[in-house]
Amino acid sequence: IEEDAVVERAILDKRVRVGKGARLGGGAGEKEIRLTLVGKNATLPPGLVVEAGAVIEPDVAPSDFAAGVVRAGETVRAQERR
Known about the structure:
By secondary structure, the protein is an all-beta fold. The chain is built from no helices and ten strands. It has strands at 6-8, 10-12, 17-18, 23-25, 36-38, 43-44, 49-50, 55-56, 69-70, 75-76. It is globular and about 45 Å long. The mean pLDDT is 92. The protein has one domain (6-76).
C-alpha cells in the first residue's frame, strides 16, 4: 500500500499493490455494510477510487481499469495478455 492510499472495509488477497493516493472501500454511515474485495496479484493504479461493494479480480493490471473510478457493484476482470 503506497503513500497516501486509504483502505477501509476491504479485503485484499496476497501480493496486492495499491498505488499512491488510491482510495478503496469506505462507506461509513451507510445502512448496509459492503466490503470491497481485491484478488491476488492485483495492481491498482495511483489515484484510483474503488467504491464499497466493488470487486477487483485476481491478476488485474493498471491497464484493465477503463476509468479512474470503480463503482459499487462493479467487477473488474484481468484482460488476456499474450
